[in-house]
From TrEMBL:
PROSITE patterns: DEGV (PS51482). It comes from the Bacteria. Keywords: Lipid-binding. This is DegV family protein. It comes from Absicoccus porci. GO terms for molecular function: lipid binding. It holds the Pfam family DegV.
Length: 290
């Protein structure tokens, strides 16, 4: 029995890399002033952030992929595979997972949709885990069950450069965003399971980094310690495009702070950046299925 692995580009995996990995990649659209774009196809990261900088009133929004594109990719995968495992972005952040689960009912169990509350680098880790499990001979249903059982074995903290984009998305009030801007507050968000929640506030970049370091240390030394002892935890950094020197410094700082762990990095997708805006730095961890 052969199993195809599929995810969306919120994982940070795009079609070119997907081909190398043997993974099907679904493109996630986003909109700038009502016009639809696809990252790396109809707009580059540089163009995206240039528009964000020079058009402060531009409307940014995201959307789940058209149902027809999802169905088409499943059907294409099933031409050469017996089953499909689809790992979409967290159901707490998008309705695409719920929609895909409903669509999969048409395929008599041949398509298994994983609802494991992952996004960005932790979602990428789920793809790697699915590949490992597939190579071990697991069925699509078995892979889905294992990945969903692991959904809370990950953690993400992300510092947002401005409250303005969270205000546009309705996550903070206009008054709070204005006050935050005046006080130069750097909000820190967390993803523990399905939701993106407020975690802390810092008055400087240095303070924000320390808060994120302390939070991840607490996770690794506490609830994830059994996995740490078995060398099963991976540490990651994420960031928005356009700040190479700051990202380089952040990567080196994280590698030094978490020297006992393998640390990897990946930029946030432009779809995610629609909600966070520029200037983001993040850190996270996830258990690696072995």
């Amino acid at each position: 029995m052969t199993v195809a692995i599929m995810t969306d580009n919120q994982s940070g995996i795009f079609p070119e890399e997907g081909k190398k990995l043997g993974v099907y990649i679904l493109r996630m659209p986003f909109f700038l002033d009502g016009k639809q774009y696809y990252e790396n196809e109809t707009i580059t990261a540089q163009e995206f952030f240039d528009r964000m900088e020079h058009n402060p009133d531009m409307e940014f929004s995201t959307s789940m992929p058209p149902a027809g594109e999802v169905l088409s990719m499943w059907k294409e995968a099933l031409k050469t595979h017996d089953e499909v495992v689809y790992i979409p972005m967290s159901s707490g952040l998008s309705s695409s997972c719920e929609t895909a689960t409903l669509l999969a009912q048409q395929f008599d169990g041949k398509v298994q949709v994983v609802n494991n509350q992952r996004i960005s680098l932790t979602q990428r880790q789920s793809v790697y885990d699915a590949m490992t499990l597939r190579d071990q001979g697991k069925s699509a249903k078995e892979i889905k069950d294992i990945l969903e059982a692991e959904k809370f074995n990950s953690s993400i903290y992300i510092m947002v450069g401005s409250l303005d984009y969270l205000k546009r998305g309705g996550r903070v009030t206009p008054a709070a965003a204005l006050l935050g801007g005046l006080l130069r507050i750097r909000p820190i968000l967390q993803i523990q399971g399905e939701k993106l929640d407020a975690f802390a506030k810092a008055r400087s970049l240095k303070a924000a980094k320390k808060i994120m370091f302390d939070a991840l240390h607490k996770d690794l030394d506490g609830r994830f310690k059994p996995f740490v002892d078995k060398k099963e935890m991976e540490v990651y950094i994420s960031y928005t495009h356009g700040q190479p020197e700051q990202v380089k410094q952040w990567f080196e700082e994280v590698k030094t702070e978490f020297s006992d762990f393998n640390v990897t990095q990946d930029p946030l997708s432009l779809s995610i950046s629609c909600h966070t805006g520029p200037g983001c730095l993040g850190i996270g961890c996830a258990r690696k299925v072995v």
